[in-house]
Amino acid sequence: MTSDSPATSSPLLQVRDLRTSFNTPAGKIPAVSGVSFDVNHGETLGLVGESGCGKSVSALSIMRLVPNPPGVIESGEILFEGVDLLKISDKEMQSVRGAGIGMIFQEPMSSLNPVLTIGRQITEPLGVHLGLSGAAAENRAAELLEMVGIADSRRRLGDHPHQLSGGQRQRVMIAIALSCEPKLLIADEATTALDVTIQAQILELMKNLTTQLGTALMIITHNLGIIARYADRLNVMYAGKIRESGTAEQVYMQPSHPYTVGLLNSVPRLDRPASERLDPIEGEIPDPANLPAGCAFAPRCRWATSECERSEPALEQVGDRQLVACFESKTVSDSVEIAWK
Amino acid sequence: MTSTVSTSEKVGESSGARGQDVDRTTPLLSVRDLQVHFPLKRGFIVQREVARVKAVDGVSFDIYPGETLGLVGESGSGKTTAAKAVVQLNKPGNGSVKFEGQELVGLSTSAMRPVRRKMGMVFQDPYGSLNPRMRAGDIVGEPLKVHGLADTKEAYREQVASLMTTVGLSPAMAERYPNEFSGGQRQRLGVARAIAARPSLLILDESVSALDVSIQAQILNLLQDLQEKYNLAYLFIAHDLSVVRHISHRVAVMYLGKIVETADAKDLYERPLHPYTQALLSAIPTPNPVHERSRERIILRGDLPSPLAPPPGCSFSTRCPIATDICSQTVPELKTLAPNQQAACHLATSV
Ligand SMILES: Nc1ncnc2c1ncn2[C@@H]1O[C@H](COP(=O)(O)OP(=O)(O)OP(=O)(O)O)[C@@H](O)[C@H]1O
Ligand SMILES: Nc1ncnc2c1ncn2[C@@H]1O[C@H](COP(=O)(O)OP(=O)(O)O)[C@@H](O)[C@H]1O
Ligand SMILES: [Mg+2]
Ligand SMILES: [Mg+2]
């Protein structure tokens, strides 16, 4: 699949109208309902939104790792280097995972096998995808550990996960995810559980390595600061849909969806003078099994009109590369501009 | 429909965090040289102490009525242990904890009870900290019963209803169980319960950390309202430094069981003096791509050292970007380097 990869001008990954849902006793949960986006070669894309909005389910759908049952990918296309991942065999998908797309999860402890040495866990994919074994695999594994900044790497190969700190375990996860030089690395809340100084170490490492290797990176997080620092473009999700998308400058400097504005106003900011009070989004996220009709954000939106309660706005181009799903986006971005000066 | 957004740009004249509206004549809580050491025991039949974790190792701070002290530091630095020692949930090995002038260290459990009424606690986990089999109303009202603060059933019900309204919940929700509430609502319940017995100090240990940002902002506003209304003092523990700046009047930074820097929030954020504080602040990415891309970050080497074997001298010296020989030899004392600002660093100089 790698030999006939299309010209680098076409996107590496194209997600088209993806719909993934869960059948639960409480009813059908449309976790991802009609999501479309691209990831270009070598770029860093951010996916941001509050818990439960469908970030992880989007990533798991791309990897075809949605637990089934209760989850089903109902429809859509996931074109990776032009091939629809939803149409290939399990065996072919196996080789895409790892060799094509690597993934790092939030919980380093649950994604590493506690009874196997670090060395075994790194050399295994090297054998499966690259045919390396014995001393060659071991040398490569030691190199990889060194690459992610683990000192005394050869001795560390014999360690078990519990002998490492949280930050070191996440470094090992990065080493494994990058071991077969995938074209895309998906990092789902990969640093959320770590202390801020360690978080900074890991993120800088991930960014530097993917830049060096030319790997595209998809950073999934609820932390607006991380996306601002590392992502070229981002998608803002709310209740299973992308509500706004654009370059980091566009979305942070001229947000045009009320949800994006609300998120940015909810966080205290070290880059601005301290404020007396925050201006949070009112209310709470809707019950995913009973989403409101029309725009799912309307019940919390200070700009909502009766139209918003009736019909669902589509994601439409508002600027050069900025897309927004809101009937009132012009009013929203104008008043933000006034308020932010 | 409104057509303007109020933003966090609305600031008073001060560029710092919360204004100087605290009367600092008599401290409400005064902690001196607090130590909590946990023995690490080994052995099958006879347990022998093989090592000690100096979880809190000589911590001192004051909190004044109506003031928020933010306590920050990496996981394992001793924040929770210090907070528990304040309310005597951990028996400190050494040191003094004075609350409203009264020494708490050494008090019996029964002598502690009336004191504990005046110290509320709210924990991190909005799921685990509420009894799942109790109705919301009784969770909120339990302290009223324990401390005998409601004479009649009617008075009890009224107070519970008013507490729920105060934290932004409908009194009609009193009949529900915790699992019927969202994370943010559960945290509101936790706050209502903590203020039920009309405490003068609230200990908030990562109370907003697990919440989504929009809900977190709602709870932070609620905490500020309550502080103003009841002149409540807060010991606010969090790892998010931007949240801590927003809510705190003063901030103390902990590293491996010690306070390494303390200052008014405004000064600490504008002019951190300890290299650890500097690194910590530099590690926080802000939601501003222009600012982020033009900013150099201090990236610390390595992990927090094991608390079982802290490095000699300054415990930060193994990760410190500017450490010299003296740092691995002598433990630095907290020195006053600016008005109201102290740092424990051999190399930090007065300003
Ligand atoms: N009951 C205990 N027995 C032994 N060691 C303990 C105990 N409680 C805490 N410790 C140790 O004391 C140190 C400080 O722990 P503490 O929970 O106070 O940290 P913290 O700053 O609150 O961290 P976090 O940010 O992760 O909540 C750690 O090394 C911890 O492992
Ligand atoms: N295994 C599952 N079973 C049922 N519902 C699920 C499952 N995994 C996720 N969901 C639901 O799908 C929605 C999106 O979840 P997720 O993608 O994990 O959110 P996040 O954006 O926080 O990563 C949520 O409503 C969640 O409850
Ligand atoms: Mg997730
Ligand atoms: Mg703690």
Automatic annotation (TrEMBL), chain A:
Q: Which organism is it from?
A: Candidatus Lucifugimonas marina
Molecular function as annotated in GO:
ATP binding; ATP hydrolysis activity
In Gene Ontology terms, what is a biological process of this protein?
A: peptide transport
Q: Note whether Transport occurs among the keywords.
A: yes
Higher taxonomy: Bacteria, Bacillati, Chloroflexota, Dehalococcoidia, SAR202 cluster
SMART domains referenced in this protein's UniProt entry, alphabetically: AAA (SM00382)
InterPro entries, per this entry? AAA+_ATPase, ABC_Ni/Peptide_Import, ABC_transporter-like_ATP-bd, ABC_transporter-like_CS, Oligopep_ABC_C, P-loop_NTPase
Report what the protein is called: ATP-binding cassette domain-containing protein
Gene3D superfamilies linked: P-loop containing nucleotide triphosphate hydrolases
Q: Which residues form the ABC transporter domain?
A: 13-264
Question: Membrane topology type, per the record?
Answer: Peripheral membrane protein
Location (main, coarse): membrane
What does the similarity note say?
Answer: Belongs to the ABC transporter superfamily.
Look up keyword ATP-binding and say if it applies. yes
GO cellular component terms, semicolon-separated: plasma membrane
Q: Which domain of life is it from?
A: Bacteria
From TrEMBL, chain B:
Keyword Signal included in the entry's annotation: no
Per UniProt, the keywords (alphabetical) are:
ATP-binding, Nucleotide-binding, Transport
**Which intervals hold domain ABC transporter?**
31-281
Example GO molecular function term? ATP binding
Q: What InterPro entries does the record point to?
A: AAA+_ATPase, ABC_transp_ATP-bind, ABC_transporter-like_ATP-bd, ABC_transporter-like_CS, Oligopep_ABC_C, P-loop_NTPase
Alphabetically, which GO biological process terms does the record hold?
peptide transport; transmembrane transport
Q: Which Pfam family is an annotated match for this chain, by its short name?
A: oligo_HPY
PROSITE patterns for this protein: ABC_TRANSPORTER_1 (PS00211), ABC_TRANSPORTER_2 (PS50893)
CDD domains tied to this protein? ABC_NikE_OppD_transporters (cd03257)
The UniProt annotation puts the region (Disordered) at 1-24
In its keyword annotation, does this UniProt entry include Protein transport?
Answer: no
Which NCBIfam families does the entry mention?
Answer: oligo_HPY (TIGR01727)
State the similarity comment.
Belongs to the ABC transporter superfamily.
What is the name of this protein?
ATP-binding cassette domain-containing protein
Q: Which species does this protein come from?
A: Candidatus Lucifugimonas marina
